[in-house]
Amino acid sequence: MKRENVLVSEDALARQREFEAKIKEMFTSREAHPVACVDTFGCQQNVADGQKLMGMLADSGFTFTEDPKEADLVILNTCAVREHAEQRVFGNLGILTHTKKENPEQVICLCGCMAQEERVSQRVKESYRHVDLVFGPHALWKFPELLWQVYETRKRVFAVDNEDGTIAEGIPVVREKGVKAWVSIMYGCNNFCSYCIVPYVRGRERSRDPQCVLQEVRELVEAGYKDITLLGQNVNSYGNDLGLDYHFPDLLEDIDKIPGEYLIRFMSSHPKDATNRLFDVMAKCPHVAKQLHLPFQSGNDRVLKEMNRRYTREKYLEEIRYAKSVMPGLVLTSDVIIGFPGETEAEAMDTVSLVEEVGFDALFTFIYSPRPGTRAAAMPDPATRAEKQKWFDKLLEVQNANSAKLHAAYVGKTVRVLVDGESDDENFPLASRTEGNRLVRLKGDKSLIGSFIDVKITDSNTWALYGEPV
């Protein structure tokens, strides 16, 4: 894939701004005030995409609601990674038949990773005829043009062609209020893990220009955002396509030079590309949070090979040992799949033993979910759901005990946190995060929201810490 074919031209982006103006003028001439509902499923990358959709809609004259019944335009921004998320999306599409019946002029849109799958777009075309617009991640940058086609022709529009993918700089963004922000530094994936659909729906890896990333982070810091997460399917591959001999650790070092009071996080990080230099840079850069999310997926070498992860158990453990050595107190989290096709109980217990050996602060755990179109979906899978559930329950038992133990060790200590919002606990009305991203529920006044403060930890459980400002 040639680099010059990756970047969307200024002329092409200017054309989209013309369509935004047309949509805005159309509603103005009708003396109408259009309202949109953007419902996002899945990962932070989807959240970032949803904020771009809202940015383009705002420039087209829309305001926003969380209630589809109030909306002139409903967008389901979808995830294809888990079967459960897909079922929820189809359930919501079914519910929208009622809102469309009450408001026949309502436009319904399905976008995101699910929409890029041919089987999904075909099912929508045949069985969900109230859906007006379907497009995948590759077409997000030309959303205004696609929406204008729907309004102008009153016909259904499908933009789901398979493409390598592009980078479009300068798309407007409507960010959530508060202290957290997400910055995509690259798109796509070249890894083709056998269980994962992402490379098929998001295309090949392509990195944003470092200066564009730095400028976006600089603007966020100046705007008051204090917890900024860099996003990529594999951030450790950042820069491989730039031809600049400039890679992810270089980007972290340059971001760290931006003045201000803020923390930088990143996800996801692939173990096959994680290096000691990355950990050294994390250790020396004060703005980079001493938190590492490094998905290992399985603790068994045979299963890792079948997953096409391209590292071994020992290679993963070596990385963890080095990262801990240069960052004492490092907070570690990971992703784990239990019940991969062909996995035995003994192999699943290898995963449990790795969890015991590493001592993760928290895990994102999943029972394997087959995704049509991936290699793993065609593999023999003799273990029953009941067997996999038993292995999964053992994993949770071990991890929950470790999380509770690690959290209990915080009690009596004073830690620095960023107060980022309100809590759902009336006795501890504020929510905050440590540098390691551990949730701390606080006593205190709402005026503390948005501030870094010192907190004494007074209590803990498996999932959270509790404290009060010092």
UniProtKB/TrEMBL annotation:
Q: Where does [4Fe-4S] cluster 1 bind?
A: 43, 79, 113
Domain MTTase N-terminal span(s) in chain numbering: 34-152
Q: Where in the cell is it found?
A: Cytoplasm
Could you name the Gene Ontology cellular component terms for this entry? cytosol
Q: Which InterPro entries match?
A: Elp3/MiaA/NifB-like_rSAM, Methylthiotransferase, Methylthiotransferase_CS, Methylthiotransferase_N, Methylthiotransferase_N_sf, MiaB_methiolase, rSAM, rSAM_horseshoe
In this chain the Radical SAM core domain maps to 175-405
Q: Which residues form the TRAM domain?
A: 408-470
Q: How is the cofactor bound?
A: Binds 2 [4Fe-4S] clusters. One cluster is coordinated with 3 cysteines and an exchangeable S-adenosyl-L-methionine.
Question: Does the record bear Ribonucleoprotein in its keywords?
Answer: no
Instruction: State the needed cofactors, names only.
Output: [4Fe-4S] cluster
Subunit info here reads: Monomer.
Do you know which HAMAP family this protein is assigned to? tRNA_metthiotr_MiaB (MF_01864)
Q: What family classification does the UniProt entry report for this protein? A: Belongs to the methylthiotransferase family. MiaB subfamily.
The name this protein carries in UniProt is: tRNA-2-methylthio-N(6)-dimethylallyladenosine synthase
Instruction: Tell me what organism the protein belongs to.
Output: Dysosmobacter segnis
